[in-house]
Protein: ATP phosphoribosyltransferase
Amino acid sequence: MLKLGVPSKGRLMEQTFDWFADRGIHLARTGSDREYAGSVTGVDGVELVLLSAGEIPRELAAGRIHLGVTGSDLVREKLARWQDRVESLSLMGFGHADLILAVPKFWLDVETLSDLDAAAAAFRAEHGHRLRIATKYHRMVRDYLRQHGVADYQLVDSQGATEGTVKNGTAEAIADITSTGETLRANHLKILGEAPIHASQANLFRSLSAAWGTAEQASLGQITDRLAAA
Ligand SMILES: Nc1ncnc2c1ncn2[C@@H]1O[C@H](COP(=O)(O)OP(=O)(O)OP(=O)(O)O)[C@@H](O)[C@H]1O
Ligand SMILES: O=P(O)(O)OC[C@H]1O[C@H](OP(=O)(O)OP(=O)(O)O)[C@H](O)[C@@H]1O
Structure:
């Protein structure tokens, strides 16, 4: 059986179901509201696996699912050398969110990354410790800052309510995803730079390490035919 991993709840799950339905592939949760079981009709030999969006990259990389729907941000964050482990078969056009760096609005002379670099050096001289950036996107933020020559900072882990860390005094800046910008505005933060660190959206990914037997390849063929026809 070809195992297809999809987000188990919320908007991402609903939009994933709609996206496949538009392509003649019908995914459904079965059993009670709380039971994580599902069915697939419209293609042969496909088993639905309901998972947290954040776990789908790891399951793809381990080869425990053949295909998986999740945000491109989560694949980049959770998988080192992600291109060697998964392949994107399709952008899905939903789940849009930008990973951005933000600083307090009142830092009037900090608008760009090079301003941040200068502010970080000044911050260290003044406070005796490095400027703290709160995030759960450690890999992506480190890679991005390294590429842009910013070194005088430290990451502090924040798994939620990240925009609140500045007000709470546990960080000076944050890196998090934003979609409407409401949370940033409400917490008196402004985005640094012109372009986001990453513009994320949901993708259908294929595992490069799962066992692709004849049956799984045949099911994949049926799915890709449906995608091509849409
Ligand atoms: N406004 C938003 N808030 C949070 N995630 C968003 C938003 N817009 C799009 N996304 C995307 O949704 C995905 C995260 O989904 P979700 O929060 O369900 O995952 P999760 O981390 O597995 O959740 P949980 O741990 O609660 O099960 C990411 O790819 C993220 O970029
Ligand atoms: O730009 P906006 O539309 O305001 O959305 C951005 C917010 O949404 C996400 O949080 P979520 O509600 O998923 O909670 P968490 O990250 O704190 O778990 C994200 O971490 C931001 O806090």
About this structure: The longest helix spans residues 214-229.
